[in-house]
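question for whoever is on the cluster today: can someone run the full assembly for these? two chains, 646 residues total. i dont have access anymore since they changed the login thing
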Amino acid sequence: MKLAIDAMGMDKGSQIVVDAVKRFIKENDYELYVYGNETELEGLKSVERVHVLHCTQVMEMTDGALAVRRKKDSSMVRAIDDVNNGVADGIVSAGSTGALLSASTLILKTIDGIDRPALLGTLPAKNGRTVDFLDMGASSENTSDHLVQFAKMGRALAKYVKNIESPKIGLLNNGSEDKKGDLLRVETFKKLKEIEEFNFIGNVEGRDILSGEVDVVVTDGFSGNLVLKTIEGTGAFVMSTLKEKLMSSFTSKIGALLLKPALSSLKNTLDYKQYGGAILAGLNKPVVKAHGSSNAEAFYFALKQLEKAVANDVVAKIKRDLV
Amino acid sequence: MKLAIDAMGMDKGSQIVVDAVKRFIKENDYELYVYGNETELEGLKSVERVHVLHCTQVMEMTDGALAVRRKKDSSMVRAIDDVNNGVADGIVSAGSTGALLSASTLILKTIDGIDRPALLGTLPAKNGRTVDFLDMGASSENTSDHLVQFAKMGRALAKYVKNIESPKIGLLNNGSEDKKGDLLRVETFKKLKEIEEFNFIGNVEGRDILSGEVDVVVTDGFSGNLVLKTIEGTGAFVMSTLKEKLMSSFTSKIGALLLKPALSSLKNTLDYKQYGGAILAGLNKPVVKAHGSSNAEAFYFALKQLEKAVANDVVAKIKRDLV
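^ ran it for u. tokens below:
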């Protein structure tokens, strides 16, 4: 397996990528192609099976679609180009979502039958389960055909990456009854209902996403982005309130000490970083978007996620299931 | 003060309303008008200043707009009628949101300058603050003019109920930059920016809602509903995971015992019931929607919320601020 890594998108610099790559490469015999400023990537130069490719440009967080043609020697464009040319089988990048979306759509192209890619994230849910959620914000406006395509991709990924035979698919809506929602939801509901192979469980609400009762939740990119960040914000709010209460008295501080393992296990369960980045699904090659704020562990998990996508040949399987 | 109460919308029956009314009436000298099945409300008959008005019909949870004209003797329609006729100053109902919205819009009418009502909820936020969030789902599709009206109402309520001199208003969007979002957001952003009296802080993301950094968050009813239920669902998920971890070992169980007061204080902070129901803002009289799943305490807090709205004469103040 050969993986491409855009090392230049991290909020806190490329050392995080260096550390993650070192950990990852020890566990396998893959070839890793790391694109970025060679000075910053010095630490990888003597690592076996790691190839540092110096790039003179950097895709900035403010860069969008237009920058793709301008920044041909950016680590992001170079890495995607090499995936397209077969040098590597897939790519991880923590760079600007807009630029990554544009560059990979332009260079790798969407799969036949998919109009636009979707960001798919795997979130922790009740009873130790996880849920695949898409689109988390690749688009800001979608049609019902897009949403049906998202459902197909989500289903394929749940089937082939998580080995769920017949994933339960839900449409995120403002009520669970059949005819709920705006025109987009009503149309999408009808279309999803008609696809025989689908285990479509109907409309699900915001409170059902993490219930563990649904495997794939489909929504438009605008709502998906609001909802994803609301989950993050609410989790952070509850944890910070919990911390405050734990520090509020002498007795509670003692209790908190005894609970250290339990609380750190809670923190782990809620730690979205552990679940890797987001898969930019619908392209002809696997693309993983890591958080710009990732630490070395989070970036390592994003690499693991790309590894899984390549190992399971998910692109070919999505294609097959689309027919 | 005279308050109308629709007693027939509770998931678990009217006894909850009976208990809440008994607690509430002890604290003041108001007249309460309680509409519903008199047999179920037997417990209120001998309570001073409580008037039970027998109704032969019940608005069901599946009832929507059409039922309003058919069920003229339902507790909901009767109560709203009496508010309209001046028998009472405002109403609390836990009945079907759709029916309550239709009935109150039809009978009480929206304020001049407001095209449609919005559901406004007050949510707990960081640092002991709260945030007013609207529309939580009165509409399923909105225009930018609606969103501007929501901002005006949210601002007035934050000003006059919470005494915040210049409430910080945020537009919920898929990014914090100025030109983010779909057409609706871009249009709304422009219009909000132009209103001089507004302390408009720009776009806010899902993760900012509970940050304590914003007083009023405005969004369309569809997104608002998704986001609100996501907050509830994520809170429930974190709390259930916490519980599971606390019970996972002997040491953690001891720790949990020591933490009992801290944990119940956490539960209290997160308990949305304590923050009352939602205000159906934009009508000529105060209307509070309580949760159908409320217990007696939650319904009591919904009554407190109506009391505040009436005492502060919020409808007149919203009207004044709209000019």
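summary bc i know u wont read the tokens: Chain A touches chain B through 61 residues (CB under 8 Å). Chain A has eleven helices and eleven strands.
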